[in-house]
């Protein structure tokens, strides 16, 4: 990706806002959601210079499309605006458009039938670790947004977060927008040295295992850590990792508080990938032609609710990846085929390690800051245990030969005065659990 600076003029004047309505000279609170066709029309107009303008400067910007404008035009190139019948905003006020499945960016209008996901392999008998804990939710056809729109898509369409110039404009370049964080890398360092040194802005409390696998599973305890304006993000996630150095490859998923990207202080469900050590490939969610969403029950990049607030109110998000017939399938809140929401094609990895499997599993927390670092998880240290510290539980992986195996993880904590981790088998291997987190701060 070529670096490109996005000017405030381009962001403020060249495109329409995702929420319609504002007079150019007198912004006001939006009263309705801008129809998708109008949003796309604004992008098309900015590409051709045909949009109306009140100033010569705006007209000049519109007549010379930026790389960001070209990216947006390309992202939506396969979408027929007339076929998008419904849009809504989620609890974070992110606009979602119901895009016909075959018109999403990763399929580009393909005529091939969608593949059928498998049930996740059965192996050891595990107790229901989530008993007594609420499951996080994301969308519900029974709910309406603040404009009265049903918060769900009809059969045959998937909810795609509307990528706007305002969102891109919060980053110094298009390359920064695509990266895991503005400074790039997103995988913690460890003895195995699967990547170049991690930037000093990143901190981790996590646990990993070097083992050949085709995916894995855990229940992620959901919290809402406070990320200040001077900080970047706080998350809990899975990493499935292959290769090393410039050939390092990942498939990732979890929850994240990343105000600069999502324009909200609340937790969001996310996915990410890279095929070259976070250098020139990778993107969040559906912001590039990578992940194929096949199930409309979840909004990737959308709000998660509720979150944990006390020992008596614990909330989990169940996530799994499973490589099957050349596709890294993602499962949410269950392991049956019906819980698979889509996949990363193994061809994304261009014959690299993750084309056929991963060599490492990794679970835990990551934060990014500059002069100070945000809380991780609940903001409490791992030693405080269940109900207070954040955790991931029921952690297991899928060997290439089949079935599943409880993880046996090695804890790594690179800033133990601010973030800690501890791994154990609670009662039995069926309850493999990682506690992690901490308050963060300055150093």
UniProtKB/TrEMBL annotation:
Keywords: Signal. Transmembrane segments: none annotated. Residues 191-443 form the Neprosin PEP catalytic domain. Residues 1-23 form the signal peptide. PANTHER family: PROTEIN, PUTATIVE (DUF239)-RELATED, PROTEIN, PUTATIVE (DUF239)-RELATED-RELATED. It comes from Methylocella silvestris (strain DSM 15510 / CIP 108128 / LMG 27833 / NCIMB 13906 / BL2). InterPro entries: Glutamic_endopeptidase, Neprosin. PROSITE patterns: NEPROSIN_PEP_CD. This is Neprosin PEP catalytic domain-containing protein. The keyword Signal applies. The keyword Zinc does not apply.
């Amino acid at each position: 990706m070529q670096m490109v600076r996005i000017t405030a003029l381009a962001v403020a004047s060249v495109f329409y806002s995702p929420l319609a309505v504002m007079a150019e000279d007198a912004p006001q609170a939006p009263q309705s959601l801008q129809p998708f066709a109008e949003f796309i029309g604004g992008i098309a107009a900015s590409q051709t210079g045909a949009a109306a303008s009140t100033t010569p400067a705006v007209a000049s910007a519109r007549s010379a499309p930026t790389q960001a404008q070209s990216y947006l035009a390309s992202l939506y190139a396969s979408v027929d605006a007339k076929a998008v019948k419904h849009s809504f905003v989620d609890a974070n006020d992110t606009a979602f458009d119901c895009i016909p499945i075959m018109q999403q960016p990763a399929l580009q209008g393909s005529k091939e039938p969608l593949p059928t996901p498998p049930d996740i392999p059965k192996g050891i008998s595990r107790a229901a670790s989530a008993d007594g804990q609420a499951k996080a939710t994301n969308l519900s056809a029974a709910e309406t947004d603040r404009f009265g729109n049903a918060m769900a898509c009809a059969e045959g369409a998937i909810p795609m977060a509307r990528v706007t110039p305002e969102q891109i404009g919060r980053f110094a370049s298009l390359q920064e927008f695509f990266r895991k964080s503005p400074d790039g890398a997103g995988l913690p360092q460890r003895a195995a040295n699967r990547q170049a040194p991690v930037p000093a802005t990143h901190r981790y409390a996590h646990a990993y295992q070097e083992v050949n696998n085709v995916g894995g599973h855990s229940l992620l305890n959901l919290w809402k850590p406070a990320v200040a304006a001077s900080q970047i993000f706080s998350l809990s996630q899975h990493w499935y990792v292959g290769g090393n150095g410039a050939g390092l490859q990942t498939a990732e998923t979890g929850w994240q508080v990343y105000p600069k990207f999502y324009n909200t202080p609340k937790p969001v469900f996310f996915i990410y990938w890279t095929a070259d050590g976070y250098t020139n490939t990778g993107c969040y969610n559906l912001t590039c032609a990578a992940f194929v969403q096949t199930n409309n029950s979840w909004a990737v990049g959308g709000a998660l609710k509720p979150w944990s607030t006390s020992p008596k109110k614990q909330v989990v998000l169940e996530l799994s990846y499973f490589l099957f017939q050349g596709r890294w399938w993602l499962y949410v809140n269950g392991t049956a085929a019906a819980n698979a929401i889509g996949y990363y094609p193994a061809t994304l990895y261009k014959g690299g390690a993750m084309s056929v499997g991963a060599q490492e599993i990794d679970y835990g927390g990551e934060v990014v800051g500059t002069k100070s670092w945000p809380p991780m998880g609940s903001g409490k240290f791992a030693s405080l245990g269940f109900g207070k510290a954040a955790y991931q539980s029921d952690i297991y992986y899928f060997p290439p030969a089949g079935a599943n195996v409880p993880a046996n993880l090695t804890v790594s904590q690179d800033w133990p005065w601010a973030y800690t981790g501890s791994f154990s088998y609670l009662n039995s291997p069926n309850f493999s659990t990682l506690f992690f987190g901490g308050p963060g701060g300055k150093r």
